[in-house]
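Interim report, section 4.2 (structural modelling).
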Amino acid sequence: MGLDIRWPIGLLFSLVGALLVIYGVATMSDAEVYRRSLDINVNLRWGLVLLAFGASMLLLAWRASRQPTAPPESEKK
Amino acid sequence: MQNVQLGLIDYAILAIYVIFVVGIGFALRRYMKSSSDFLTSGRSIPAWVTGLAFISANLGALELVGMAGSGAKYGIATSHFYWLGAIPAMVFLAVFMMPFYYGSKARSVPEYLKLRFDERTRCLNSISFAVMTLFASGISMNALAKLLNQLLGWNYDISLWICSAVVLVYVLKGGLTSAIYTEVLQFFMIVLGFAPVVYLGLRDVGGWDALTQKLSQVAQHPAALGLTADTSKVFAPDAWSSAWKPLLAGPASNPMGVDCFAMVFGLGFVLSFGYWCTNFLVVQRAMAARNMSAARRTPLIAAVPKMIFPVLVILPGMIAAALAITAKDGYHLPPKTLDSAIYAKAIPAVQEAAAKNLSGADAAQLVSEAAGVKMLPDKIDALVKAAPTLKDKELRDGLQNAVAENNYDGVILSLVQKYCPSGLLGLALTGLLASFMSGMAGNVTAFNTVWTYDLYQAYIARNKSDEHYMWMGRFITVVGILLSIVCAYLVSHWSNAMDIIQLVFGFVNAPLFATFLFGMFWKRTTSTGAFLGLLGGTLTSALFHALTSAVGNVPGIKGGYLSVVKVFPSDMAQNFWLASFAFTVCFVLTLGISLATRRTKTDEELKGLVYSLTPKLKDEEQAWYLRPAVLGVVLLAGCVILNIIFW
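Predicted structure of the assembly:
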């Protein structure tokens, strides 16, 4: 199928990750918010994980798109 | 369940997800050129995508929510649904069955039955499957709308229609490909949304060793958490933290109340192979793969996350039980939520008790009977004493506080609420929402294919142009979603509906694997044998259910309405034995009738459909690490190791 699913996955998680990081930084000094998550700023930390995941998906999609389309394993024919 | 306040950031994450799934639908629209593009993805998807969609279609929200509940209720033994009840069947599907599904060029599981046997078996299977998928998608959407209503205070009807509309848009635009792509998105959403919750929970409990130590307290006082009705029941200390020892000790020694044979044969063989190897909802994902080897790798790729999922779905339940037994930070298992219909009966009962000056256990009994749930006597006592001066709202709150039965489906949410600050909360809720919506999309895409190819094209309008079937595929997608909404309302208004539907699923699914096993591996199996065997197996399950019951159930919807011949220690044991019986009857009938009837299909016609008549696939051309048999053995070995570690 023409659309490489790694593009939307990468974009979605980069966006959500970036949002969480920004929110995590903005609420860094607010201890009250993170009392429930055992005083860990999970938004910042997990946001970074999501960002890394999203970026690596984008990288994979980008690499695949640069390669000349390899003929799919033609087993049917 | 108390309301949760979502912040702007949570809404933003939710909105981004919805925009993306709809966007995927629109982006795929231009690739939908024929009915097979729309209904079967034109067999063009790489294996890792179909593999993740395969597992995602199974990991609907009901599974996510239900397995966490079972983790609290039964402990680590719940993992039998994964390591025993899934992985072996997935490997079998990949290695032995996929060549026939994919190689026969059948577009659906019922169509395979038609090619192998005849129209009767196909008709029986496709109709029961179509009805089941509609109800499954209705149940999923009802649960979602109820959740949004209770958790966020959104209106039930609006939630139901809006979520269905989102699903409709992306399925209508991008067909099966859209559903598969969003399932992959959902897979990552769930894993990445719930992993931090599990991590925080485990850290809060104090790590794995502290968890097992607290679970041994749970095993010794299960009634303290309302896990067993019998207050004197005590289990061995490892009943929640080891998978096999309590099971081997017999049904009275494990919280599931199941014996070893029912577990291994009933769940591990009959139910699991019946589901994974014949259910078109999951098999459809593998059939959309771009070539035979991708199709065979699909279930194997799916088996890897399936094997690790207990960490994500069962562990939270165990954490919840451990937190609740020590009442850490006042945590308790979420109680059943009362609704207005129950209040309408319970509040007069409280007033009656107050008027009669009942107290303690008597008052609690009166109110419990009216409400239909168990109540804590001391809380009801206090409520009854204060009743004359209380307002309606306070009475309701008092009743809700006194509920003594657990809402196991709320376990995972109670942890999300406990640990997630704004931000992470949005991510976890989006994961949940995603899985409900893709539950609907998965069922609707399986339904529209079976309807268009197995019912409409086969019986109603043959030999029409492909445009016509494409149009029908789209049209029936809309109808399917509308019917799902009808089913959702049915289930929400008539609470017995859910039990009955799940019962019927069981009746239909239990014998099915015997039919496929014979069909694929014994060329002598005749069409009449298969049809009558399947019918006989289904009727056997209904009869078995009518004649047996489980401890603590009154004869009726839970079985035994004809007469009670045998009482099982638990519902689960009854269910596993039912499946075992239905399978055996279907097996014997198919075998006997096939031997007594004449074959209607020649060897030539069965080529590609039956094992002994199909040329063996040459796996040697592939790199050894890509061969299904090699991967299958590795997965099974991994499974054995996990079972030994958590023995």
